[in-house]
Amino acid sequence: MKxxxxxxxxxxPIVQGGMVWCSGWRLASAVSNAGGLGLIGAGSMKPxxxxxxxxxxxxxxxxxxxxxxxxxYSQTDQVLQIIVEEGVKIVFTSAGNPKTWTDWLKExxxxxxxxxxxxxxxxxxEASGVHAIVAEGFEAGGHxxxxxTTTFTLxxxxxxxxSIPVIAAGGIATxxxxxxxxxxxxxxxxxxxRFVASTEASAHENFKQKILELDDTSTKLTLKNLVPVRLxxxxxAQRVETAxxxxxSKEELNQMLGKGRAKLGMFDGDxxxxxxxxxxxxxxxxxILPVQTIIDQxxxxxxxxxxxxxxxxFY
Length: 315
Fold this sequence. Notes:
The chain is of the alpha/beta class. It has 2 domains: about 10-205 and about 280-310, Aldolase class I (TIM Barrel), CATH 3.20.20; about 215-280, no CATH class. It is built from 14 helices and 11 strands. The chain has helices at about 5-10, 25-35, 45-60, 75-85, 100-105, 120-125, 150-160, 175-185, 195, 205-210, 235-245, 250-255, 260-265, 290-310, and strands spanning about 15, 40, 65-70, 90-95, 110-115, 130-135, 140-145, 165-170, 190, 220, 230. The strands form 2 sheets. It has an 8-stranded parallel β-sheet with strand order 1-9-8-6-5-4-3-2. Strands 7-11-10 form a 3-stranded antiparallel β-sheet, covered by helices on one side. Helix 3 links the parallel strand 2 and strand 3 (about 65-70). The longest helix is centred in the C-terminal third of the chain and has 20 residues, at about 290-310. About 50% of the residues are buried.
């Protein structure tokens, strides 16, 4: 089995989450330049905008980077064609059946990773031929699995059932969290929320500053009967919760969400009426920092905590 470093050609087994409205070329290139794997989040980009971000990312780094592609969008075929045309060699797929595109991508020399939230779908992803899996616990921000399985329980179960590398995601923002994921059998980590609060993230400054105010109770997993998503508790999130408690139908909830609700919050900075997606780990984030500093801190803490455990004597 290849290591994550070997699979992607990177220095550190750290992958940046491909988060909508937060993961543009500046963030992706900064993470890649700092030794991790940067991902452009295609979920919030029209095909021509994605092409521009890929081209700017190529100009900003000579290191490997990839694109995260949610498979539920109608323009997936155009998005993937652009990725091929622009020579991107790493694709992370999510929110759909990996079997649909994995062979097509592999035939074009692309390394494919799929995001899952359960053992069942990890096995299906492996059977589809992906090179690695991201196993994401429900602590994560944004769209989530239906079963609310935590990272701490999900990772070892997925590792036990598949033979390809597993990348842990959900609730990881520090070197300690990274070390815990490795102890559970992960070969790498995917980090999202910590990178939203970076100088290079394309998230609005209002959103970044809001993250610094959060604690362990500030987010909630909602819309479980539609598409589960973890949001900061604000006026919009409370209105959604009230509608759900009053028996709102899926159609009514979709109408309430409307178009552009996530952009309104995370990109335009409306902290009350926007959709603000962030993980539970946000309670540990207290500074907006450059990506290089974030990764340096994670690696330094990882090494220090690892050495401390080596020296730990229970007897």
